[in-house]
Each structure stands twice: as structure tokens, then as C-alpha cells.
Amino acid sequence: MTSKTNSHIKIGVSMNYRVTSSGTRRAYIDSPYIDFLADWGVQPVPIAITDSYEMLDRALMGLDGVLFTGGLDLDPVLWDEPLHDKTELVHPRRQKYDFDLYKAVTARHLPIMGICLGLQMINIYHHGSLYQHLPQSPGLVDHGREHHHTSHSLTLAPESRLYTWLGEKNISVMSGHHQGVCRLGEGLLAAGIADDGVIEAIERPEYPFLIAVQWHPEKDPENPVTRAITENFLNAAASYTLRKSSLTPEP
User: Fold this and answer.
1) Which of 133, 200, 218, 222 is catalytic?
2) 81 catalytic residue (yes or no)
3) Which of 128, 147, 155, 197 has the highest local Cβ count within 10 Å?
């Protein structure tokens, strides 16, 4: 798809939230996510953080897909584990917002792309669990950190959309995370698995379109894997637009 054909597509982008040391409350989006979508000619639409599910649901009207962005760590109480000393908790308001937003998005069957925390949130929503600190798990490969990215290989499941799109069993991705999927959530497919067994890509076969990855495609835009994922996400968004318009009554 070209930028021209993407210009009508509106992709909602989940926001981050924090309270500064001076007490200022800030809702924001890291610019690489916005730049990544804009480079494809798509209109990024920030989805404001609110505690109201109804307002979140209304905010989805007019959107063609949603990107769930990265961030800090989910509270392990969600999967009945004590807090690890290396876990850096996302703000509780961001955590609630992400889960409410995912519920609203899936109710509308909007196409979904998740990155890093986005993948982890989806896995937890579906009753999975996470490794809280991969570097302390024996035998694991280097998955990098937030400010230290590294490349490693993945093996794709032959029944996955990722494998269909790429036509390859093994791919290389740019990784930068200290947590990852431990127990896979219900109804999800482990689409891509690192050499140490850590799940790095998930899909939801019974949902119209959902792809979530543990790595950061927005930081590696020229990677053929990034291009394949993004093209198919935007194709799904364009198809959603057509379905939506076909249901709009004529004046």
C-alpha cells in the first residue's frame, strides 16, 4: 500500500501516563510510534486516557484500527505473583486504561497491533502470565533492555499469519525488553518463539485481526518483518473502513 492509499486510514494510538516528581500529571505518546504511522501516510489519533469506559468506547468511533504501545511493567498481582525487585510498575491509571481500551476495541472488532507492553497486556487480559525479569532466568538469550536493543532470531509457527506473510520459518528482530510471556493466554497463538522458548509474537486466531509483538518494529522500520506486519495491519484497517462504510445509511 502507498501513502496515498493510506491517507484515509485513522489509527488510534494508546497513550502513556505518569506523575512527575513535582506532581504534574502527564498523558503522552513517545514520538517514534507517531512517526512510524505517519511515515506510512496514516493519520495517528491519540486515544485520550480516561477512567470512563463509555468515553473510551466513543473515542473509537471513526477509527479503523488501534496500536497498543509499549511502556513500563504490569502489576504481577494480575497473575498472582509477588513483585520482583526489577519490576518497574506502569502507573495504575495507564494499566486500567489499557485493559478498558482493549475490551472496547475488541467489542468493535477493530484491527489490533500491539507492541511490547501491548503484547504483555493482551496476554494478561486472556489469563496468561509473564516472566518478570528475563535476565535472571537461566539459559535465556539476550533480549536487550529499553535503552539497549539487540537482534535475535525467532521461529515462526507454520499456522501463523506471520509465517503466511513472510514465507519463512526463521526471522530476525530488534529486541529491547526485560519481561516476556511465560504462560500463554487463552485463545492466543504463539506465532513467533525465540531460541530460548520465550514467546515474542502472538495472534488471536478467532479474532478478525490481531498481531502483537514483543520487539519494537517502530525502531526498525526497514526490516522486511516490520513492513509485512504493518502492511497487513493497514490492509485490515482499510477493509474495516470498507465494512464500516457499507453499513452507513445513505442520506
Assistant:
1) 218
2) no
3) 128
**Among 91, 152, 177, 216, the one annotated catalytic:** 216
What was the pLDDT predicted at 192? 95
Contact 177/71 with Cβ under 8 angstroms?
A: no
**Residue 251 confidence class, pLDDT cut points 50, 70, 90:** very low
Closest C-alpha among 124, 105, 113 to residue 213: 113
Per-domain residue ranges of the chain: 3-246
What was the pLDDT predicted at 250?
Answer: 40
Amino acid at 41: G
Q: Is 182 a catalytic residue?
A: no
Q: Active-site residue among 116, 178, 182, 203?
A: 116
Return the biggest CA–CA distance within the chain.
64
List, for residues 148-162, the tens digit of each pLDDT value: 566 778 999 999 999
Output the 3-class SS for 55-94: HHHHHCCCCCEEEECCCCECCHHHHCCCCCCCCCECCHHH
| pLDDT attached to residue 175 | 74
How is domain 3-246 classified at the architecture level of CATH? 3-Layer(aba) Sandwich (3.40)
Q: Is the pLDDT of residue 111 over 60?
A: yes
